[in-house]
Specification:
9 strands, mainly beta, three-stranded antiparallel β-sheet, about 30% strand, Peptidase_S1_PA, 1 helix
């Protein structure tokens, strides 16, 4: 698990809009009032994985699947409430060690061409490998102003994994 901690106003630098529904496992989390919070990945019809720093207790947490443009109703969306949220017991708010959690859905996700589980890796990624990251990014900067069009459409970028000692020296 690779953890990247970024400030409130960071974006996917060098990213691009994904092909529509090209990553059907990507979802975003919302509060019960619909406020978008964090990203997550669907791992099977009942479970998703996200970062532990995104923890919201049920029943306030919902997952949103089948999305591309979060401001357009496409007819592909599913919103499912969380039944259970399990942060890693070793998660540290100090240094973000073990920054992941599992989310059990209150009902199974309906698989279709817009909603699918993330494909599992066949081997562990190594330093130097290129990996795909995706999400919608932030839409509000720290001053509360809406950022120009950022984060409406699903975004992706390809990044190169770094050696742990490289990260430790930054």
């Amino acid at each position: 698990m690779v953890t990247v901690v970024m400030g409130e106003d960071d974006k996917i630098i060098g990213g691009y809009e994904c092909h529509r529904h090209s990553q059907p496992w990507q979802m975003y989390l919302t509060y019960d009032d619909g406020v978008r919070w964090c990203g997550a990945s669907l791992i099977n019809e009942w479970w998703a994985v996200s970062a532990a720093h995104c923890y919201i207790p049920p029943p306030r947490l919902a997952v949103n699947l089948g999305e591309h443009d979060i401001y357009s109703e496409e007819g592909t969306e599913q919103r499912i409430w969380a039944e259970k949220v399990i942060p890693h017991p070793g998660y540290s708010t100090y240094n973000h060690d073990n920054d992941f959690m599992l989310i059990k859905l209150s009902q199974p996700a309906a698989f279709n061409q817009y909603v699918q589980p993330v494909p599992l890796a066949t081997s562990c990624a190594q330093a130097g490998d290129r990996c795909l990251v995706s999400g919608w990014g932030n839409m509000i900067n720290t001053g509360g102003e809406r950022v120009r069009g950022e984060g409406e459409e699903h975004q992706s970028a390809t990044l190169q994994l770094k050696f742990p000692f490289t990260c430790n020296t930054v």
